[in-house]
Structures are given as C-alpha cells and as structure tokens.
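Chapter review: from sequence to fold.
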Amino acid sequence: MLEHLVRLGMAYSEYDGAKDYFYSDSKCIGCGICEKVCLSEKIKLVDKKPAWQRNVKCYLCYACLNYCPAHSIQIKSKIYMKSYTEENERYCHPYATANDIAGQKDGVNSEV
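The token string follows.
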C-alpha cells in the first residue's frame, strides 16, 4: 500500500512539474551550478539564490541536488514522502562533471 502511495505521489510530482518540490537552504553560496546543470532551465538565480520557475516543468533529473557543492538544494517532504536530503550524501556520477551535464542543454530543450 505504501509503495503505491509513493508511486502515485511521484507521478503527481512529475505531472505537476515539481512545483514546490526543491528548495535551497541557508548553506547556499550563490555559485549558480544548480542553474547551470538544470536541463529544463527551471532554475534561475535571483539575488544569487536559486528560484524554481513555476511555469517550467522539471525533468526530475536531480542534477541540481546532486551537483550542488554546498549541499544546499533540498527536497521538501510531502504527506506521501519523507525527504532525507538534509541528512543524506549526494551522488555525482564519477564520469560526468557539472560541465558535462550543462553541455547537454542545447540538445535537450530543442528536442522537447
């Protein structure tokens, strides 16, 4: 039952474009890597802090979360899903840098 609720919640998040799904905490250093690696271009820096545009659908690739050097990008807990991003480590692919991810932007948005 719980697994079905989690799947339903994740499906809704994807449908919803992940509005209010991510946030940055006080550890944010304003480096802009989150904006750089965001393939959907949902993240824009406003006053050196990431802002997730509500009118842009998120691809849920989690690059912003995993490539943030300060670990300031977090996922909000929902009724159907507890987030542990504040306690857990991040995963950056050992062979893909933030520049590699950002370099994919040109091809991604032109095909969508």
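Two observations follow directly from the output. The chain has a mean pLDDT of 83. The domain at 2-111 is CATH 3.30.70.20 (Alpha-Beta Plaits).
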